[in-house]
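hi! just following up on the protien thing from before. the input was this:
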Amino acid sequence: MTAATDAATPRRRRSFKQDRDVEEWHGAYHPYDLIKEGIIAFVVVSLLVVGLAVIFSSPDDTPVTVKSWSTANPVDFATTAITELDGTSGTATYGPPYNSTTGASQSIGPISPESWFGVHHPIDTATDYVLAPLQTLPNTPEVQAAVSEYKSASPTQQAAWTKAYEDAVTKASFDNGKLTVPAGDYGPVATIIAGLTSMARSGALDGALLSTRQFYGADYTKPLLFLADGTYLADLGAAQHLSGDQWGMMNETGNYPGQAWLWLYTMWYQVPPFKTSANADFQVWGLMLVLTVLLALVPFIPGLRSIPRWTRIYRLIWRRHYKDLAAAAPGGTSP
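and the predicted 3d structure came back as:
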């Protein structure tokens, strides 16, 4: 077959299927300056943001810090600090990526990403939250002696001191700027926790937990985990309807009932089996991954992709367009 004959032969076109193809648009076209509209939108939104910020100020609450926590509830801070020292806090027993606690990793059968990646953000709560920060304090010979005594003691002796203090600190009180705990055999632990509480209330502990070798200190992992181990932050979250059995999270404080676009995610934590599962985070993540993949594949699933056409919902969205077509068509009926 010659090239001329081949060019004259019409190509075979595949049959039109409504489930797969769309008709070519034969209507009118109107010019639209996208750059102009974008600049106008940017200027208007910028003016609104600046103007409203000046008039109403920020709606956010002040940041929660270790200083604000220890000032508002020093007993809760001390109660949490002793669990960091004896290694029984939530962070100390969390597992990867912070430590290698046996059996702490979440998994589904043999699938355990936490174990695969291992400990890549190591946190030793006793050292990082208590002993090392205290060693940075100047002119505190009593505290430094207590830290040295504790570090030189045997693990058995350390455990006896911390256990005794942990049992007693629930009955502690804070008066006249001093933490008071019922008398007991706590060794140097009472001095250590009292010193750490004073350090936290001064704001120095926040700085010690944020110290980094990098120029910009933007890693807030340590102070956030420390705060999460106590009850103060959880109580603030519950008051804003942010606990796990409530809305979960929101952008602006007081914006009840939270972020609607996250309801699909947080909803699963309220239903079995996720509600009572120790692996809820990983299971919900896996479920949302599957649902996201299905959503991405909607255009490729026959039948499912045709639901908008079958329900004719597009006619509601483009009702003005179809109204104009009906008015322009002969007899005033929509094609």
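The first strand starts at residue 173 and ends at 175.
Residues 50 and 124 are 44 Å apart (CA to CA).
cheers
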